């Protein structure tokens, strides 16, 4: 084995990444649950805030949520009054989803929860390290999504 080959799990970047991702997922999930929401709710509301009204299919693609999970989460958000569905005037078979005023308030509330979760997850890192990590993770994600 050469000197650069990892010999322990804790020397494998992929292992460290998956273990860190697991911890981050737990912290974010617990944060949203404490606020009576789910990560899918945040992702869908954030996508609507960023891109505006969209079809269910477009929301799924933009938020990387499976089609069946999009429908279930949108049903929950609609029941709470956070989104509205309406027929697409260009294609009556398709629904257009729009965030409501209450949905925008919920998005801001969930943004605060995710912000607190980010602080907990990345507490041991300096602002410079957080920026560097975000850049590196962005590069990895972009490379593997191509």
UniProtKB/TrEMBL annotation:
Record domain HTH marR-type: where: 1-142
GO MF annotations in UniProt: DNA-binding transcription factor activity
List the SMART domains hit by this protein, alphabetically: HTH_MARR (SM00347)
Task: From the UniProt annotation, give the residues forming the signal peptide.
Answer: none
Q: Which InterPro entries match?
A: HTH_MarR-typ, MarR/SlyA-like, WH-like_DNA-bd_sf, WH_DNA-bd_sf
Q: Which GO terms describe its biological process?
A: response to stress
PANTHER family named in the record: TRANSCRIPTIONAL REGULATOR, TRANSCRIPTIONAL REGULATOR, MARR FAMILY
By what name is this protein known? MarR family transcriptional regulator
The top of its lineage is: Bacteria, Bacillati, Actinomycetota, Actinomycetes, Propionibacteriales
């Amino acid at each position: 084995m050469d000197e650069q080959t990892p010999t322990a799990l804790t020397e494998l970047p992929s292992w460290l990444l998956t273990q860190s991702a697991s911890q981050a997922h737990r912290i974010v999930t617990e944060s949203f649950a404490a606020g009576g929401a789910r990560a899918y709710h945040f992702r869908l509301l954030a996508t609507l805030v960023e891109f505006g009204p969209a079809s269910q299919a477009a929301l799924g693609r933009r938020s990387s949520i499976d089609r069946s999970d999009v429908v279930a989460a949108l049903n929950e958000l609609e029941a709470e009054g956070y989104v509205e569905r309406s027929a697409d005037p260009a294609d009556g078979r398709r629904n257009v989803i729009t965030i409501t005023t209450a949905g925008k308030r919920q998005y801001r509330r969930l943004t605060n929860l995710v912000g607190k979760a980010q602080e907990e997850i990345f507490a041991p890192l300096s602002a410079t390290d957080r920026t560097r990590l975000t850049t590196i993770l962005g590069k990895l994600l972009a490379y593997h999504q191509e």
